Amino acid sequence: MSADPRRTEPDTEPGREPGREDLADDVSVVRGMKAAYALAWRACPGMLLLQAAMAVIGGTAPVAIAWLTKVALDELAAPDPRPGSLVWMAAGIGALGIAMAATSAVTAYAQGRARRAIGLHAQDRLFAAVNRLSGLARLEEPRFHDRLRLAQQSAEHAPDQLVQMGLSTLQGTLGIAGFLGTLLAISPVMAGAALVAAVPAMVAHLALSRRRAGLVWRTSPGMRRKLFYQMLLTDLQAAKEVRLFGLGDFLHGRMLTELRASNTAEDRLERGVVRVQVSLAALGALLSAGGLLWAVRAAAAGTISIGDVSVFIASLAGLQSGLGVLVQGIALGHQSALVFHHYLTVAGVRDDLVGPSPDRELAPLAHAIELRDVWFRYDENSPWILRGLNLTIPHGSSVAVVGLNGAGKSTLVKLLCRFYDPQRGSVLWDGVDIRDVPVAELRRRIGAVFQDYMDYDLTAAENIGLGDLEAIDDMDRVRAAAESAGVHETVERLPAGYRTMLSRLFHAGDEEEDEEEDGEEAARTSGVHLSGGQWQRLALARGLMRQGRDLMILDEPSSGLDAVAERAVHDRLRELRAGSTSVLVSHRLSAVRRADRIVVVQDGRILESGDHASLTASPDGVYARLFHTQAEGYREDPDPSAGATGPGPGGTGPVPTAVGAG
Ligand SMILES: Nc1ncnc2c1ncn2[C@@H]1O[C@H](COP(=O)(O)OP(=O)(O)OP(=O)(O)O)[C@@H](O)[C@H]1O
Question: Which of 145, 315, 353, 591 has a beta carbon 3.0–4.6 Å from 135's, enabling a disulfide?
C-alpha cells in the first residue's frame, strides 16, 4: 500500500510551533512592525497623518519653549531689558503652550479613531483567515488555539501600539535632537553622558520586552484553561452538572490555580522590571544632580548666563525624559511586534485541506459515491480509525451505517463532507476525487444533520434557515422544513412563533427598544428555552432545508426524540429519502431496517453489507446480533434471571453489551 502523493501534509511555516527561538527572532520583529504599519495605513491613512503632524508639533514645541525662556531670562537679566521683546517672547511661549495643549487633545481623538479602525481591519483579516480553514484539523490543535487567542489580543492592541510607538519615536527623536543640540552648545560632556546613560536603559528594556513576550506565550495555555473553567462556571449548559455534582468549588479552585501560576510568573518578571527601573532612575538622578551642580558653579563663575542655566536644566530634563520615553516606547513596540507575530501567523494560515484550482465544478451526482481503500487517522500519533474501508453509495439509494461506539461511523461521515482528507485511498464522486474539486462545491451538494448538532442563540426561523442561507428569509421553505422535521407545531406555539428568540443569553429587538413592547415583542426579547428533543428537531429541519441536494447525511438524527416523534420523523425521512441518495447513521436499528443497504463498520472496515432481510438471515452476523439484542430489550422477559447476555439469535453465545448506546 503506497502513500497517496496528495495526502495532506501539515504545513510547516504558518502552523510551525514557535519555541523561544521564534520569539527571539528579530526578523519577526521587523516583519511584525512592517506588517502592522501597512495594516494601519490601509485602515486609516488620514488619522495616521494627523497624528504624525501632532507628533512633530509635540516634539519641537518644548524645545522652542525652552529656548524662548532662555532668551527671555537673558533679556530680563540684561542691564537694559526691552519690554516690547519680552511681551512678544511671553506671547510666543503662551502660543506654544496652547499649541501643545491642543496637540494632546487632537492626538487623543486621532488615536481613538485610528485604534478603532485598525482594530476593525485587523479583526476582519484574522477571522477571514480562520474562516478560510475548510477542514477541522487545525481547529483541533491546542497550539492553534493558544496562538489564536494571542492573535486576537494582538489584533486588538498590537498594530495600534506599534503605530503609537512609531509616532512617539518620531516625537521623542525631534525633542531629543533639539535638546541634545542645546546641551551640546552648553556642555558637550553632559550631552554625551546623557546619551551614554540611555544605552543600558535601551538594552535592559529590550531584554525585558523579550521576556514579557515569552511570558505571554508560555502562559497562554494556562490562560486558556482559566477561561475554560470560568466558562464552565457561568455556562448555562454546564450549570446543571456543575450544581448537581457540586463542581463549583472544584472549578473555581482550578481557575484560581491557573491564575495564580500566571500571576507568579508575572510577579517574577515584574521584580526584574523594578530592579532595572530603580537602577536606571538612580543613574538618571545622579546625572541630573551632577549637571545641576556643574551649571550652578559655571553660572557663579560667570562662564554661562542665567538663561543658559535655565535652558541647560530644561534640556537635560527634556533629554532624559525624552530618551526614557523613547526607550520604553521602542521596548513596548518590540514586545508588541513579537506578539504580533502570532497574529501574522494566524492571518496567513494556509487552508488545512490541500485545495484544487478553485474554478472547477462538481457535476450533480449521477452514479455513485465511492470510498476506495480509505485509511484515516486523526493524527500521526493516533491509531488508524478507518483501515482500508471500501464502500459504494449508489445514486438514489439509502445506505445505513451501523456499528458499535467508536467504530468510525461519524468519521466516515466527516470524510464524505471532506472535513478531513484520508491519509490513503480516496473518496470519489462519480469517479472524481473530491480533493480535485473546491470543497465549497462539494458541500453545496450535501445536506447534513450531525450527531453533535448546534443550538444557535437565534430566532426559531433563523435556526432553521441557516441550513440554506440563500433561503433564510423564505418562510415557506423554513416552514416546510419544520413540518418535515415534525417541529412546526412546536414552533407555532412559541410566543412569537418563528420569530421567537431561542436564547436565554441574548435578546433580540435592541434596535426597537424605543417602541412599545407588545406581548410578542416581549417574548422575542426575553427568549425561550427548548427541550433537547425540540432542539434536535430544529437541527433536523435545518438539515432538511437542503432537501433535494445530491447527498443527505443523517448522523443520529433522532437520538433525543420520544418514541412517537422518532417513528414519525423516520417515516417522514424515509419518504423524503426515497429516490434520493442518503447516508443514515443510527444505533436505532428499527430506523435503519428499511434502508436499501445496511453496512456494519467494525475495526475500520465494512464487516457486513446487505439489506435487513439478508443480514438478519445470518444469525451469527454482527448486525443480526445487534438487531435481536435491541429487539429483546423491548420484549416482555418471561424469565428476569435470563439477563442481557442470554443466548443470541439462533442460540449463539453472548451478544455485545455496548449495543444501542450512542
Ligand atoms: N476529532 C477527533 N480527534 C481524534 N480522535 C477522534 C476524533 N473524533 C473521533 N475520534 C476517535 O475516532 C474513533 C471513532 O469515532 P467516531 O466518532 O467516528 O465513532 P462512531 O462510530 O461514530 O461512534 P459513536 O457510535 O459513539 O457515535 C473514536 O475512537 C474516537 O475517539
Answer: 353
